[in-house]
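Q: I'm building a small set of examples for a reading group on sequence design. Run inverse folding on the following structure and report the sequence directly after it, with nothing in between.
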């Protein structure tokens, strides 16, 4: 099931609402950050997507080779807008020498094959992601089959599961197979003429999330690992190295994500350029806010399972009503992530009833 943008984050932030004046100051800070990035040769190109998340940010790095980080989805409209944005900066698709892919979601890599074919660009991505990108259609099918098994196991009715699977298949065309010609590994440097980008694997939102640090400029390209206006949903995905029929332990995406966030919090940064929306100027404060939100949500879920065990789907329905049906996999991933936090802290246990897994808070915790 692909990442089509979260609705679960619609719950109002408990942080105080910004005043008019604060909003104006923030808009100005955003402009300044984008200007500074542009002076460092890094330009944000906001490309339309058909997904709920809205536009996706590709970043053009004016260096040698001319580098594009993420492509936007596989659509004529995305290609057209990308071309126009490039031409506004004095470049053409044919000038691109290197395409970098940040992770396995279609809104980020869908156009990559078309761009690579037209430009002859090298394609760089995490080595472990290369088989997924090369075999995209089949891999996406395996991902969906895996999601289907998880949904049934956690109490989502079979007719809803079937409907969601066909919705997911209908979105498949926004992606496309692409061959990675420069496999990257965690910790290495991607060297351009005027800069080195440190490659860091930060899984959680997806198994392949990769971020790129320009150490000299203190600018981080964070993709969907850290986004200012929405919390990055840690979707449960088939592990990258799993066989297509994998039915092993469920990945603990939120726990993985929180570990990755802790590592990013330690970094010394001026500007974070995310895969959606505006730059993040205080990543430490934002990560702290996300950590508080996850802890709050875990406690809220704990209260829901104090009196009796509930399936993750039942919990999602209590929290989000009908959204738990229309966005069943997203909300399921969200609940399971927080249940994992509770279980890790010894505050909840898993019980199996009639083939469905349910969770119950421990009374003595
Ligand atoms: Zn994503």
């Amino acid at each position: 099931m692909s990442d089509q943008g979260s609705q679960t984050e619609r719950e109002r932030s408990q942080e105080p609402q910004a005043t008019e004046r604060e909003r104006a100051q923030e808009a100005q800070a955003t402009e300044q950050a984008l200007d500074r990035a542009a002076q460092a040769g890094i330009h944000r190109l906001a490309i339309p997507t058909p997904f709920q998340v809205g536009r996706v940010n590709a970043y053009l790095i004016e260096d040698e080779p001319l580098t594009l980080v993420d492509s936007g989805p596989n659509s004529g409209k995305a290609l057209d807008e990308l071309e126009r944005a490039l031409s506004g900066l004095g470049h053409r698709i044919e000038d691109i020498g290197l395409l970098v892919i940040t992770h396995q979601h279609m809104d980020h890599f869908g156009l990559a094959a078309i761009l690579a074919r037209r430009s002859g660009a090298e394609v760089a991505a995490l080595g472990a992601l290369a088989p997924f990108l090369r075999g995209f259609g089949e891999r996406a099918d395996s991902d969906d089959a895996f999601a289907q098994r998880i949904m049934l196991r956690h109490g989502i009715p079979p007719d809803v599961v079937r409907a969601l699977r066909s919705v997911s298949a209908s979105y498949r065309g926004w992606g496309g197979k692409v061959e990675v010609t420069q496999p990257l590994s965690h910790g290495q440097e991607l060297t351009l003429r005027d800069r080195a980008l440190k490659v860091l694997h930060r899984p959680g939102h997806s198994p392949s999330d990769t971020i790129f640090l320009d150490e000299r400029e203190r600018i981080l390209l964070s993709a969907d690992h850290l986004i200012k206006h929405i919390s990055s949903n840690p979707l449960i995905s088939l592990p990258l190295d799993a066989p297509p029929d994998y039915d092993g332990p469920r990945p603990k995406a939120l726990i993985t994500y929180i570990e990755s966030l802790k590592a990013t919090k330690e970094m010394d940064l001026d500007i974070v350029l995310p895969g959606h929306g505006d730059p993040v100027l205080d990543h430490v404060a934002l990560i702290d806010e996300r950590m508080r939100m996850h802890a709050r949500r875990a406690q809220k879920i704990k209260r829901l399972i104090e009196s009796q065990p509930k399936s993750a789907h039942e919990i999602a329905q209590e929290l989000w009503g009908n959204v738990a049906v229309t966005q069943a996999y997203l909300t399921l991933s969200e609940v399971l992530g927080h249940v994992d936090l509770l279980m890790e802290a010894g505050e909840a246990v898993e019980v199996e009833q009639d083939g469905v897994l349910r969770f119950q808070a421990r009374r003595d915790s």
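The first strand starts at residue 42 and ends at 47.
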